[in-house]
Design a protein that fits this description.
The complex is a heterodimer of chains A (112) and B (117). Helices cover 0% and strands 54% of the residues of chain A. Chain A is mainly beta and 112 residues long. Chain A has a single domain, classed as Immunoglobulin-like. In chain A, the strands form three sheets. In chain A, strands 2, 5, 6, 10, 11 and 12 form a six-stranded mixed beta sheet that branches. Chain A has a four-stranded antiparallel beta sheet with strand order 3-9-8-7, with no helix packed on it. Chain A is globular, with a radius of gyration of 13 Å. Classes of the chains: A mainly beta (112), B mainly beta (117).
Chain lengths: 112, 117
């Protein structure tokens, strides 16, 4: 079985400062890992995905994540937060199944 | 092009009523998924279709939940005799292919918020 743990339910940053959203995964096999973002009243949108190629993955809107097998982590980062980044972020894992297993989410607040 | 659409966007049902939630996937997408998202939680898998075949229904919480996709396009999630614990947002997603998950991004609809009173 696979699972993900998002270590922070809420993160608050100031506009222009770095963003770090933490995620640890558990999997018996090589996982595929994703980050999705959910804006209010909008559908989930894929930010980036890790598929056993490069361990540093670049996504949309300046986000990136690094797969660290030794730490079983897949943290999401962005050098400089923008007000439009305020949303709910989900770390997601899949191992050979068609369905996705979501974490419980991290709500990102961006202060002006 | 058009994304995944779901209707209704909001549904209020009295306990014991039956409800039907509709999902229109992106045209030509082979795979279709239903997820349930409780308040403050991440989505949880309910069921998966490849074309009209329901290949995985392991996430359906009880036999009151039923999903179909008779022509391999539009899908309906039906909940019979609704209970308060069924209150959640129901998300539909579709993807282009049916092979390894990582090759095919899942595109999500906006969801249907079901409130059972």
């Amino acid at each position: 079985a696979q699972s993900v743990t998002q270590l922070d339910s809420h993160v608050s940053v100031s506009e222009g400062t770095p963003v770090l959203l933490r995620c640890n995964y558990s999997s018996s096999y090589s996982p595929s890992l994703f980050w999705y973002v959910q804006h209010p009243n909008k559908g989930l949108q894929l930010l980036l995905k890790y598929t056993s190629a490069a361990t540093l993955v670049k996504g949309i809107n300046g986000f990136e994540a690094e797969f660290k097998k030794s730490e079983t982590s897949f943290h999401l980062t962005k050098p400089s937060a923008h007000m439009s980044d305020a949303a709910e972020y989900f770390c997601v894992v899949s191992v050979g199944r068609r369905a996705l297993t979501f974490g419980s989410g991290t709500r990102l607040q961006v202060q002006p | 092009g058009a994304g995944v659409s779901q209707s209704p966007r909001y549904k209020v049902a009295k306990r014991g009523q039956d409800v039907a939630l509709r999902c229109d996937p992106i045209s030509g997408h082979v795979s279709l998924f239903w997820y349930q998202q409780a308040l403050g939680q991440g989505p949880e898998f309910l069921t998966y279709f490849q074309n009209e075949a329901q290949l995985d229904k392991s996430g359906l919480p009880s036999d009151r939940f039923f999903a179909e996709r008779p022509e391999g396009s539009v899908s309906t999630l039906k909940i019979q005799r609704t209970q308060q614990e069924d209150s959640a947002v129901y998300l539909c997603a579709s993807s282009r292919g049916s092979g390894q998950l990582t090759s095919y991004e899942q595109y999500f609809g906006p969801g249907t918020r079901l409130t059972v009173t």
